[in-house]
Amino acid sequence: MKRFCFFAACLILICVLLVSCASTGNRQKDELSILFIGNSFTYGNNLPWLFGNICESCGYTGIRVDSVMMGSYTLEMYCDPENKYCRQIEDMLSETAYDIVILQEQSIRPINSYDKFHDAAATLTEKARANGARVLLYETWGYAEGYPDLKYNGWTTSQMESLLAEAYTRLAEELGVEVVYCGSVMADMYSKGTDIPLYHKDLKHPGIGGSYLVALTFFNYIFGEDTTKVPYQPKTLTDEQSAVLKQEVMDFFHR
Amino acid sequence: MSDKIRIRWLTNASFEIQGCGQVILTDPCLQQSTYKGIDASSFEKVDHVVVSHLHWDHITELPIIENKHHPFIYTGALGADLLASWLDCNTSLFFPMFPDQELDMGPFRIKMFYNRHANVGKTKSQQTAKCEEYDFMKFYPGLDKLQSMGGMEMCSYLITFENGFKILFWGGNIAQNQISHLRGLKPDVALMQYSKQGAVALSELAEAVDPGVLIPHHHDLKIPFTDERTQEKLRVLKETYKGKLICPENGQWLEF
User: Fold this and answer.
1) How far is A11 from chain B, CA to nearest CA, in Å?
2) Cβ B101–A68 below 8 Å, yes or no?
3) How far is CA A65 from the centre of its chain?
């Protein structure tokens, strides 16, 4: 009799859960806390907020997205104990058990100051790991053609992105962390001569198309979801432009 | 949700805008202007704060509002870090805006236009030193350090609600490039600063923008709205501006 009651209770519980899930229409997704650390390449169009919108629209309602992002900052600055935002990061890490910490270096530093890039990323990785977090490196992109620094360095957009990808890959191997190749997918999209605003008018920072592409890339990388099924899209992009960007992530990373 | 857009001028460049379920404040400086009838802690809800620039007369009450409501804050990209640092708040709340950038916030879109400020030309030390003249600055520690950025970066914003209603929040020094850039924008309402250049210059710019209604602001910072000198300025504006003009009293709600 006891065994029957146990099985009956289990059956009822399963039915209740199934009915509950079906009636709400909400897929209950795991809770996850993510911290973005970066500069204007992260705060342009508020990438963490865009990413959060994508997650929410796909039913990931338990995602907490925090960020520390100051203009022109290098990762080294976030490691300086005298720096207010270094202390802010430490406070956040001590208060919240982040699952993922995303690190974005100043846009040219991985190429021209690799050692400083390495040392700062190593410091932050150590802090993140002590917090129990997995570390993702956010690879940024080459400046768009016409940006003065390209000419000064004798690079094309694609060459600059390749150098960045190389530096981020090397760092990931040395630290045992992962890279999300946002710059590579951006370069691929840019090479197709699209009219989508990947860059802001300054030819350096992300336009809304660029930020959306990066947010989709993170979403695909972290959750493995098909980005062509993402409902959220900024109204400042056309439906066609959003569809192209969603497809680009799948084509670039999964072809 | 009502389709109506409600706007009330608080004082100086501060407006409260309600639309599509959102409450937006512009340039919250409420206690250092001549009109002190609105307490910063009195707002029940503030979802967004739009900041044109970092001069004290545009942000003095922002810390109180940020602390109570944690709104999204829109400000120029150059000064965003300084402002975040002064507020000592999490930068997740910040939307640093680049010129001509437009963001989709869901219930509305917001686009930034880059302007010029009348204080361009004054040195950093001159602008910081100017703060020493004001006794009240002691209530806002660190605010003096933002003043030179206030003269350097000046933003105006076009807010387009999802029901199509457009509000231009404009401030700054009127220059030919502004007239060219904003010509034919045709917002439903333009909240435009009565600048030191006077009524004729403002009329010229406003006529180029061609709003449904022009509402001037920033004319009661040092002289009250009810003072005859302010009223005389507005009378001249009424005479020179050919479009529809509304000059509300402090705190008066307008519905569109």
Assistant:
1) 42
2) no
3) 10
Dihedral of the alpha carbons of B77, B79, B80, B86, in degrees to the nearest 10: 180
- CB of B161 within 8 Å of a chain A CB? The answer is no
Which residue is listed with tokens 């569109």?
B256
- A202 neighbourhood in chain B, CB within 8 Å: 98
For residue B75, give the DSSP letter. Answer: E
Contact B92 A205 (CB under 8 A): no
Number of helices and strands (H, E) in chain B? 7, 13
What is the rounded CA–CA span in Å between residue A175 and residue B193? Answer: 54
3-state secondary structure of A44: coil
Sheet with A134-138, strands from edge to edge, namely A63-69, A32-38, A100-103, A134-138, A178-180
Read off the pLDDT of residues A118-149 as tens digits, 9 standing for 90 and up. 999 999 999 999 999 999 999 999 999 999 99
**A22: CB partners within 8 A, 6+ apart:** none
Greater confidence, A23 or B209? B209
Residues 60 through 79 of chain B touching chain A, CB cutoff 8 Å: 77-78
Q: Are A185 and A218 in contact (CB under 8 A)?
A: no
Provide ipTM, 2 decimals: 0.78
Strand partners, B253: B8
Picking from A68, A205, A236, the nearest residue to B103 by CB comes out as A236
**H-state helical runs in chain A:** 2-24, 40-43, 47-57, 84-95, 109-112, 114-130, 148-153, 157-175, 182-191, 208-223, 239-254
pLDDT tens per residue across span A18-40:
444 333 334 446 689 999 999 99
Interface test with B, best of A43, A47, A201, A241 (most B CBs within 10 A): A43
Any B CB within 8 A of A199 CB: no
A12: helix, coil or strand?
Answer: helix
